[in-house]
Amino acid sequence: MLSLPLSASDPHAFFDAVTPVLVLGLGNILLQDEGIGVRVVEQLQRDYRIPDDVEVLDGGTAGMALYEHIIERQHLLVVDAVKTGRPPGTLVTLSGDQVPAFFRNKVSPHQLALSDILAALKISGTQLPELTVVGIEPLNLETGLDLSTTVTEKIPALLEEVVQQLTTLGYT
């Protein structure tokens, strides 16, 4: 890695600086509703103007490869299919003290990789980002490229929840 000295007169000497907020869409688009996180971040990138301090990333099924994207963030907003036993199409938002409970009970197919990344950050002594999980209870996780109608109909509400979370963090 190339390291350049910072000039006191040039506060923008860092290139590729990490933005404080990462909106991370997770999911496998080949397994119908499992791809909801990816589909939502695609629509967010397409339909919204994203502030400079916010990065929106299609994390797909990248697993531990996402470590470098998560490190040094202040806030991590994960969008994913979330299995909680609630009726399909139910919106789920977890934050604060609810998030550790999220990791005790596997509610997302990507949860293991995400919890591994957070554990690696903790072991390395890196400050963990404030984590919020925004998701939807899936109806169908079978092979197929299309989301179920139940989940598709909830995309506007899921997008609105992501926008609301960003607004709560001070972004418009």
What would you say this structure looks like, in words?
The chain contains 6 helices and 5 strands, in the order E-H-E-H-E-E-H-H-E-H-H. By secondary structure, the protein is of the alpha/beta class. Helix 1 links the parallel strand 1 and strand 2.
**DSSP, total strands:** 5
What's the story with the biggest beta sheet? 5 strands, mixed
Average pLDDT confidence is: 83
Question: N-to-C SSE series?
Answer: EHEHEEHHEHH
* Strand residue percentage: 15-25%
Categorize the overall geometry.
Answer: globular
Give the C-alpha Rg: 17 Å
Low-confidence stretches: 1-15
**Approximately how much helix is present in the residues?**
25-40%
Question: What structural class is derived from the secondary structure elements?
Answer: alpha/beta
In spatial order, strands of the major sheet run: 2-1-3-5-4
Lay out the secondary structure.
Elements: E1 21-26, H1 36-47, E2 54-60, H2 67-70, E3 75-81, E4 91-95, H3 98-104, H4 111-123, E5 130-136, H5 149-152, H6 155-168
